[in-house]
DNA sequence: TTAGTTTATATCGTTCACGATGCAAATATA
DNA sequence: TATATTTGCATCGTGAACGATATAAACTAA
């Protein structure tokens, strides 16, 4: 009974599981360089544009600052980023890449392709990727309200 | 530069974000009954089949027992499940629903539809759901290795 | 200018996730 | 039957997530 409660009919469980397993696929590649997956996401944001306040990084990742702040402090302790008070707005903490943080981009150059290949299969191919991206983006937009 | 490192090109970030946001959509509905989303997943498993050892629940959710054990202890403390040593195999802990745990199914009867409606949009409809499910299932199967 | 409000970040507490490790019960092997 | 291995679960430590709350700087309005 209760078809609607079956695990097989749950979108959220699939997203939750796919997310966890794919994050696990990153783990050995990132762990080698002392990084976690959320820290890698911060690097993606800073590689695109260096020197951003905490709030901009959090917004870009759709996370709260109370998640990002401790994460950034760990990255600062690892010497990957620096955090300094904003000049024009003293409330802001500006996060900048160190040389170590910048150099990680070269060291992680194979990561996107390696992980990308790990998910390729019958229904998930370079051709079907865009359609999947659109659906996930729409779900995200819908839930951001 | 470095198209491959752009956040917009990352499948994992989309899965991670969609999973988090959809879990957040469950939060008010479940919180009303003192439940978290992972606890709700355990209930889905036990509503399908009551009285399962910890290992079977963990396998069904593709989680480790060291994640599930503390979670079950919290649910036991809430009076939602009981945990008792297995009769035939004393290593096993058999998890059973209490009346409170069974009764929650009625109280949460609207949850699947409410959350389901929350994700409906242009590209995600009852018609496109099956295709999305297949892709996510394939990704999950691929990564389970 | 002062008082009230908003904004940016930080702190705290709770609950996952998960790698590493420990331990006892069950099973396999010598 | 004694010993070794495997299995099932638990414990510990670390790093997210996130709600609630705090604090200081910036802004707004009286």
Provide a compact summary of the structure:
2 copies of one chain form a homodimer. With 145 residues, chain A is mostly helical.
Structural class of chain A: mainly alpha
The portion of residues forming beta strands of chain A comes to: 5-15%
Q: Main interface pair?
A: A-B, 60 and 60 residues
Low-confidence stretches of chain A: none
Order of helices and strands of chain A: HHEHHEEHHH
Strand order of the largest sheet of chain A: 1-3-2
Helix content of chain A: 55-70%
Oligomeric status: homodimer
Radius of gyration of chain A from CA coordinates: 18 Å
Helix segment count of chain A?
7
Secondary-structure map with pairings?
The structure is a homodimer of 145-residue chains.
Chain A: H1 11-31, H2 37-48, E1 52-53, H3 54-60, H4 65-77, E2 81-85, E3 93-97, H5 99-107, H6 111-119, H7 129-144
Antiparallel strand pairs in A: 1-3, 2-3
Helix pairs in contact in A: 1-6, 3-4
Chain A binds a DNA duplex (30 and 30 nucleotides) through residues 20, 23-24, 27, 36-39, 53-55, 63-71, 74, 86, 89-93.
Structure in words:
The structure is a homodimer of 145-residue chains. With 145 residues, the first copy, chain A, is mostly helical. Chain A is 60% helix and 8% strand. Chain A contains seven helices and three strands; from the N terminus they run H-H-E-H-H-E-E-H-H-H. Chain A has a three-stranded antiparallel β-sheet with strand order 1-3-2. In chain A, helix 1 (11-31) packs antiparallel against helix 6 and helix 3 crosses helix 4 (65-77). The radius of gyration of chain A is 18 Å and the shape is globular. The model of chain A has no long low-confidence stretch (mean pLDDT 97). Chains A and B meet through helix 1, helix 2, helix 6 and helix 7 of A and helix 1, helix 2, helix 6 and helix 7 of B. Chain A binds a DNA duplex (30 and 30 nucleotides) through residues 20, 23-24, 27, 36-39, 53-55, 63-71, 74, 86, 89-93.
């Amino acid at each position: 009974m209760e078809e609607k409660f079956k695990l097989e009919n749950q979108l959220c469980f699939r997203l939750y599981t796919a997310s966890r397993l794919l994050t696990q696929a990153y783990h050995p590649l990132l762990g080698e360089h002392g990084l976690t997956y959320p820290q890698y996401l911060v690097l993606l944001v800073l590689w695109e544009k260096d020197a951003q306040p905490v709030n901009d990084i959090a917004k870009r990742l759709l996370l709260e600052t109370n998640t990002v702040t401790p994460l950034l402090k760990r990255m600062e302790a690892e010497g990957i980023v620096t955090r300094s008070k904003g000049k024009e707005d003293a409330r802001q903490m500006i996060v900048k890449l160190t040389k170590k943080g910048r150099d990680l981009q070269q060291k992680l150059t194979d990561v996107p392709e390696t992980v990308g290949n790990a998910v390729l299969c019958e229904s998930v191919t370079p051709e079907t990727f865009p359609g999947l991206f659109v659906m996930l983006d729409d779900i995200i937009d819908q839930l951001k309200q």
